[in-house]
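User: Assemble these into one structure.

Assistant: Restating your components, then the assembled model:
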Amino acid sequence: MSKTDPGNYFEDFRLGQVLAHATPRTLTAGDVALYTALYGPRFALFSSDEFARASGLAAAPVDPLIAFHVVFGKTVPDISLNAVANLGYAEGRFLSPVFPGDTLTATSEVIGLKENSNRKTGVVYVRTTGKNQRGETVLSYVRWVMVRKRSEAAEIAEQSTPQLASAVAASDLVLPKGLDFSGYDWTLAGAPHAFEDYAVGEKIDHVDGMAIEEAEHQMATRLYQNTAKVHFNQFERAKDPSGRRLVYGGVVISTAKALSFNGLQNAGLVLAINGGRHVNPYFAGATVFAWSEVLDKADLGACGALRLRLVATKDRPCADFPDKDSTGAYPPEVILDFDYWAAVPKRG
Amino acid sequence: MSKTDPGNYFEDFRLGQVLAHATPRTLTAGDVALYTALYGPRFALFSSDEFARASGLAAAPVDPLIAFHVVFGKTVPDISLNAVANLGYAEGRFLSPVFPGDTLTATSEVIGLKENSNRKTGVVYVRTTGKNQRGETVLSYVRWVMVRKRSEAAEIAEQSTPQLASAVAASDLVLPKGLDFSGYDWTLAGAPHAFEDYAVGEKIDHVDGMAIEEAEHQMATRLYQNTAKVHFNQFERAKDPSGRRLVYGGVVISTAKALSFNGLQNAGLVLAINGGRHVNPYFAGATVFAWSEVLDKADLGACGALRLRLVATKDRPCADFPDKDSTGAYPPEVILDFDYWAAVPKRG
Amino acid sequence: MSKTDPGNYFEDFRLGQVLAHATPRTLTAGDVALYTALYGPRFALFSSDEFARASGLAAAPVDPLIAFHVVFGKTVPDISLNAVANLGYAEGRFLSPVFPGDTLTATSEVIGLKENSNRKTGVVYVRTTGKNQRGETVLSYVRWVMVRKRSEAAEIAEQSTPQLASAVAASDLVLPKGLDFSGYDWTLAGAPHAFEDYAVGEKIDHVDGMAIEEAEHQMATRLYQNTAKVHFNQFERAKDPSGRRLVYGGVVISTAKALSFNGLQNAGLVLAINGGRHVNPYFAGATVFAWSEVLDKADLGACGALRLRLVATKDRPCADFPDKDSTGAYPPEVILDFDYWAAVPKRG
């Protein structure tokens, strides 16, 4: 038996199968500092223990995207080591905040399998769940990915494509326990824009641009213990037409999210991921820009929530909101189309 | 109303105006590890909790320059987003040590305004104050910066240029409460050179050279939540004659300070910043060298203090102490001329 | 007297001399996060406080290689500032685990001196010991290094070459106090391969490849406060035939060790370093691959131990186990030949 992990091929998956992923991970202040150094986020809730305490929490939680990246990374060896493409996300929900000191583990259930007509690949749908050391579910999301078959001849017994919600319902959003924005300090947070100030359909150019270096995306991706070889193995990537290491899509998400501070200063707390697509590859050295669109609004009582579309580009400022055309085709400079819910304080 | 922060233009500032800056920041062991990884400092007081305890402190404080960079970073969106040039520092004092777990906030008071004769720009002088979560002032410094006007026609009502001290008086230096060097371990600290061993006028070549990569200065600058676009936006910088991202001057200061260990092993603790100028731009890839000159000495009782001039160069070793000429003009390889006070133990 | 440290030349060392190295260092969660970001290790014991507690420890210890690098870094200014080449390691033993919060100091005893026949250089053998803040020895190892003489004419009084063990005896291996693998979670650890599953002579290709950037090795090496100029001073290195900064060998060791997870998932805990040679230089940008060979096995009672040979290459996959030839000569792509003992749980 080989001791080297070959990863799963499409015919290795079974509907209903549950995979327990390796390498539990304790998050620390070191992870938070690296997240700040790699993306430059400025949302006060994750930056200051004092601000978090004034918001009803015990300390500054880690940005939910850190928890997402760490959980995602654990799934790679079991789900996407033999992947051709990461196709999408849906039904992502953040159910409990993560604090430094918490330890995350992850499992995935296979909820869909669909062989492609060429019989060389198939699409695997998994619902991944991250838990903390108390067994509380921290986050849950669906991902689908195109995976190679080991053998073209292999028969796939049971196939099924899951029904996925186009967005998480506002009634399914969960706020961190104790969260209380009644004494929110708008000045320390960086802007006076409250839930009431955002309108559905509003578009915001985040103006700033940020280049990402090879060292930076590699460090980010290793930090999440994500081992997908496309991000690190330059020797192998030299044979690809691009000749370049591909940047982990999560790095683009976190960079765009950090840029979105300029216009969404009070919308740092991601509550749900409705969907997301990496519509063009991103390679190190290009400058990332971003713009957002308000898709929906929901009053959660204790605070508001905005459903936001975050679009990122490479080497293309976003003053004119570059977007897909009427056929759904994206300009080559657009690299990310990400749909999420974020909590926003109400002016009250 | 645009939700994207346009920053302040010269005509937006008023004498006496106080700006409360956004994004409080809790410093952690993660920030300290990154500071070590990015610059390689070896001063024992900041490196070892045990050494700091033997010096009368509760734990290893963070290097005062970390606190400076973090506070400086907060001021950028309000003070220097539309800056043409960062002109100088003065009257910088470190008043209380910062420990991991402390949360810093910052405010700036406009203490001077002077429009340039071209009416397109003006110089803004601010006194910036950083406080911890107990409201104690951690540091205070004056910075002046040339800022664009939004409209050339705008009238500037009240103008004034502040009187600034050429150096912080020795009697205004404040040692960390409890600091006690009576049991100082010179061997662990790395050299036997005491306050008594340094002479006014003495020059020290720090010998070592250190290259800085794009990824490194970007990570450092993001860590301080300093968003000045010249450091990150390569797409925009490609239009500049240099074609390069400009390295944040604080990265040069910290690199040169770390190099200064070789010769100033016991002068790690900065007490004051008398002045500082970034006399030529520094771009990633060049090797930084540094030399120091002892400008003054002061006996503070519990320890000594050296007033030091720290000069940094790029791709130019400092055995011959490259310096400005008699007209005050610097060779193109000199990038920093920094004047500060540091505490140094006495042999006793 | 110059205040800049010139380092020791060969004739400055004396047999039996003990050098106390500078800059005590408190390790923190920040160091652990950076280690993860720089190498991408996935061994559960160092990644999760919960997993470590289930293994009988108080919390996740730091990877023993972090302690090794930090202790090694302290020795550089005193031992190898004037070195021509780092020749080898032997008799390395990890005697007590290191946890975040522990402070390390280091001393070295000169145990061998052998002048070369050209009288320009000589080989210095030191036994270096790292201790924690309680005075407990954390690790100990022998290193030998070729050092320049200041003066060719200098006479070397007493010379001697130490007898060094070819491997640490299994009976000399020390397990962390309390270590208990009886409830080992093979799934969380990433593979079911137990001590019983490995055979002497077995070879494992670790498959994955990892490029290292200039920024990454510089950050790693600064983090260990290792100041050897070959790693940082590009201005000086431009005069070398390679024209490149040399990557610290410890970066190669840690990268190869992290890659070895794929096949040695349960062999993360290094107990001893039997030997190690950097057989060819490694420069940033090349992709590191690795393979391992099981050299020996020992049953330690509470767990097993594998004596492993870890061979790393640059830009050369290891499916065919590239190795030295019958004359002992290595192919140019092989960069590391490292011999160590690791603890491995028994199936029981």
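The longest strand of chain A covers residues 103-115.
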